[in-house]
Amino acid sequence: MKEKIIQKIVDLNSIKSSEDRALVEFFLDVSIEQINIYLNRGYTAEQLLEKHSSAVILLVNNKYQNRKNGADKGIKSKTQGQRSVTYGDNINEITSEIRALLPTPLISLL
Questions:
Q1: What are phi and psi of 41, to 5 degrees?
Q2: Among residues 88, 87, 39, which one has the least CA distance to residue 59?
């Protein structure tokens, strides 16, 4: 299942180099862990990919695109005279678009 997801990302972004493919593989592992922590349901990687592959693909693709687009990612405004920078939201987080594809996270009571 992982290989199928990786291939979808590679096809979506027309990735040719092995370095970029390795980056996608890394982002896939990070995204699986990130969504698993968010959901708090104890899914295995395979279960998560079977049930929520669209959300995983979106998150991996966002991470890859943000990495590819360079240094100005996450900056909403920028001025050079007297140097002013305003940072936006964390662009590698689970966005509302991705949350809409996922079930409500479980809340554990202590």
A1: -115, -5
A2: 39
d(CA 33, CA 35) in angstroms, rounded, equals: 6
Chain-centroid distance, C-alpha 104:
18
Q: Is the dihedral of CA 68, 7, 59, 54 positive or negative?
A: positive
DSSP strand E in 28-92: where?
Answer: 75-79, 84-87
Q: pTM to 2 decimals?
A: 0.79
As a whole number of angstroms, the distance between CA 37 and CA 59 comes to 14
Residues with Cβ within 8 Å of 67's Cβ and at least 6 positions away in sequence, in order, are: 23, 27
Which one-letter amino acid corresponds to residue 76?
K
The rounded distance, in Å, linking the Cα atoms of 79 and 93 is 26
Strand partners, 87: 75
User: Are 90 and 74 a contacting pair, CB within 8 Å?
Assistant: yes
Cβ 46 vs Cβ 1: under 8 Å: yes
Give the pLDDT confidence of 46-68 residue by residue, as tens digits: 999 999 999 999 999 999 988 88
